[in-house]
Amino acid sequence: MSNESCRQVRRKLESLVDGLLSRPESAAIERHLDACPVCRTAAALEQRLKRELEALPRLPCPQRVSDALLDAVKEGEKPRLRRTAWKALFPSWTWKPALAGGAVLIVALCLSHRFRETAPPPPVYTEEEVLRAREIVKWSLAYSAQQVQESERSVFREVLNRRLPETVEQAVRAVYKQTTGESP
To answer: Is 59:153 a contact under the CB 8 Å cutoff?
Structure first.
């Protein structure tokens, strides 16, 4: 198989597993998978990823996120959940030592590089190792995205289940649809 056709197939594997491709596209990819063991392995990994993500437990939305959303709705503002969460993870005093340490590390690396005589040869990876590493990264990103979506949905469900006045409920639904592109 040519590298170009393999690249095209790999770009569409997620859509194939999710059932988003037309019948002719699906049939063409299936024919390619029958003939290409590397892409067939990638497709199996994609299917496994989907099964494992669907089997993950649903996590509840943190109370501070729900509270921040309710406060924002009461004040008539858009919620600032990301900023609040970021500040909760990294209070203002924690980044200053990290920044200083990073600067020292960069200077040390620059100086050590200057005195290094020869650099070791770059590692050589097989196509399968690269594919596996990409799949692991894709799994991690997909899992993170799913958790974020579930958290967003649960916040809005929790807010809407508290039976807010209809006008506030409509405003929350509009903000949710605007930010995510889907109905709550």
So the answer is: no
Q: Tokens 């590397």 appear where?
A: 38
Q: What DSSP line would sit under 112-173, residue for residue?
A: HHHH---PPPPP---HHHHHHHHHHHHHHHHHHHHHHHHHHHHHHHHHHHT---HHHHHHHH
pLDDT tens track for 135-175: 888 888 888 888 887 777 776 666 666 555 666 667 777 77
Report CA-CA distances (Å) from 49 to 28, 111, 137.
22, 43, 11
pTM of the model: 0.35
Output the CA angle 46-26-180, nearest 5 degrees.
60
- Angular region, 79: left φ>0, alpha ψ -120 to 50, beta rest: beta
136 φ, ψ to 5°? -65, -45
Per this entry, what is the length of the chain?
184
Task: Quote the pLDDT of residue 167.
Answer: 65
Long-range contacts formed by 144-148: CB under 8 A, 24+ apart? 146/53, 146/56, 147/59
DSSP one-letter code for 176: H
